[in-house]
Amino acid sequence: MAGSTTTAVVLVADDDAAIRRSLERGLRLSGFTVLLAEDGPTALAALAARPPDVLVLDVSMPGLTGTEVCRTLRERGDETPVLMLSALDELADRVAGLQAGADDYLVKPFALEELVLRLHALLRRSPARSAQDVLRAGPLEMDQATRRVRNAGAEVHLTRREFELLATLVRNADIVLSRDQLLDRVWGYDFAVRTDAVDTFVSYLRRKLEDGGRPRLIHTVRGVGFVLRVPAAGDAAP
């Protein structure tokens, strides 16, 4: 990165040789050290040989998909930031990638400038925040040291990004946060970006938190954003 004494290492895994060449050239000019992989197994081997600071994974590589690579990393406890690349018609694959633990995605074709901005944002947000014991909001408990979440006594398994989004909402309980505020605080996007990441992750969180008929915690404020509210006694999920 320009003006920095250290250079971020990005691993780009894509089965399209033209895309690999284009991203290698563009990212190097943008100040990154670039590693390349042509498929999932090569990406995993490259990760073992030289762990990068951030990953760019094509979601639909043959053999071992970007989603499977991401899932493998998360199962190993590897929290390296992951940005998925997908074609416009690969919605189901994008959803699977995010559920596997990816942090964000870009739809092809995309501008190199936006990719670079998102990578820098992910790198800014990648260090784990210092744990401040346990966050609580009504029936919800979040242990920031162990990353464990319990809602009404039931354990809830969250990806890293889901945990960070929920923690931000809990810290600001009863305060409505706009999508832009959440993109800034959770994703580090302090620039204009077109993405439905907030809505997508809120949907995931609701599904997990409300499993088994538990009351709704995260509410939509139309035209504004989202807010976490502690349910009143006797409330049930809508």
Q: Please mark out the parts with pLDDT under 50 across 5 or more consecutive residues, or reply none.
A: 1-5, 127-131
Global outline: globular
What's the β-strand tally? 12
**Topology pattern, helix = H, strand = E:** EHEHEHEHEHEEEEHEHHEE
Radius of gyration, rounded? 18 Å
| Strand percentage | 15-25%
Provide a count of the helices.
8
Strand order, sheet with most strands: 2-1-3-4-5
**Chain-averaged pLDDT:** 86
Q: How many angstroms separate the termini?
A: 48 Å
Structural category: alpha/beta
What does this structure look like?
- Mean pLDDT is 86; it is low at 1-5 and 127-131.
- The chain is built from 8 helices and 12 strands.
- It has a 5-stranded parallel β-sheet with strand order 2-1-3-4-5, sandwiched between helices. The protein has a 4-stranded antiparallel β-sheet with strand order 6-7-8-9, covered by helices on one side. A 3-stranded antiparallel β-sheet has the order 10-12-11.
- The longest helix has 14 residues, at 112-125.
- It has 238 residues and is an alpha/beta fold.
- It is globular.
- α4 (91-99) links the parallel β4 (82-86) and β5.
- 38% of the residues lie in helices and 21% in strands.
- The chain starts with 8 loop residues before the first strand and ends in a 10-residue tail after the last strand.
- The chain has helices at residues 17-29, 40-49, 66-75, 91-99, 112-125, 160-171, 179-187, 197-209; strands at 9-13, 33-37, 54-58, 82-86, 104-107, 134-137, 140-143, 148-151, 154-156, 177-178, 218-221, 225-228.
